[in-house]
Design brief:
The chain is of the alpha+beta class and 225 residues long. Among the domains are: 84 residues, no CATH class; 52 residues. The chain is 48% helix and 23% strand. It has a five-stranded antiparallel beta sheet. It has a two-stranded antiparallel ribbon with strand order 1-2. α1 packs antiparallel against α5. The longest helix has 26 residues. The mean pLDDT is 84.
């Protein structure tokens, strides 16, 4: 608080005496209502959307590193082959019972991934199963019913990398990726809006954003084939 100002004024007897005059407090200028509401909403969105999407943002950050260095995890890949026989009645004629063949292969070899391809040829059938970090290819002889299954498990890092790319991960995970992209977009936009309000940091903040964008563009121009 500012101290009160003491001034001297003449009294009735002609003598001057001290009189306390309250000092004027400085006028506080407030931002317009729309600015305060915009800042409050942007702050709320930035905080809570960041917390909701924290795990998925952290996941995509880490898997971006593992995806860029897949050679670090090349030794995790394991390949196994299986052999077996199917009922030849399923393999003759034009109406091939695809569901029965697929479910038989799933049950015998504990395959849980989705079917990516079922090909019917004159001499053989081929069935491919694919999932994150996983492939299984079965080749079935239509004359004898004998089949070979080659199963490849590429390790935990490959699972994370495929989830990062959304490859062979199904519709539900595709929706998760879309929602994550929307969350991260709103987090970025709300952060830019918040940067517009503090005058002392506005210029330096936008300057840093511009420098980061120019650096990325420069790397693209100079070193990306």
């Amino acid at each position: 608080m500012r101290p009160s100002t003491i001034t001297k004024h003449p009294t009735e007897s002609g003598l001057e005496g001290p009189q306390v005059v309250p000092a004027r407090s400085p006028q506080v200028t407030r931002n317009p209502l729309w600015k305060r509401k915009t800042a409050a909403v942007s702050r709320w969105l930035h905080i809570y959307l960041s917390m909701v999407s924290f795990v998925i943002v952290f996941f995509f950050a880490v898997t971006g590193l593992t995806l860029n260095h897949q050679q670090w995890f090349a030794k995790q890949q394991k390949t196994v082959q299986y052999k077996g026989n199917l009922d030849t009645h399923w393999l003759t004629g034009k109406d091939i019972p695809k569901l029965e063949i697929v479910e038989t292969l799933r049950t015998r070899h504990k395959i849980s991934s989705a079917v990516s391809e079922f090909r019917i040829e004159d001499g053989q059938l081929s069935v491919s199963f694919k999932g994150p970090g996983y492939t299984a290819d079965a080749f079935i002889d239509r004359a004898t019913g004998a089949y070979d299954v080659t199963e490849t498990r590429m390790g935990f890092a490959a699972i994370l990398n495929d989830l990062h790319k959304g490859r062979d991960s199904g519709h539900a995970w595709s929706v998760v990726i879309d929602i994550s992209a929307v969350f991260m977009t709103f987090v970025s936009i709300s952060g830019l809006i918040l940067l517009c309000f503090p005058q002392k940091r506005r210029f330096s903040g936008f300057l840093a954003a511009a420098v980061g964008a120019l650096l990325c563009y420069g790397v693209y121009l100079l070193w990306v084939p």
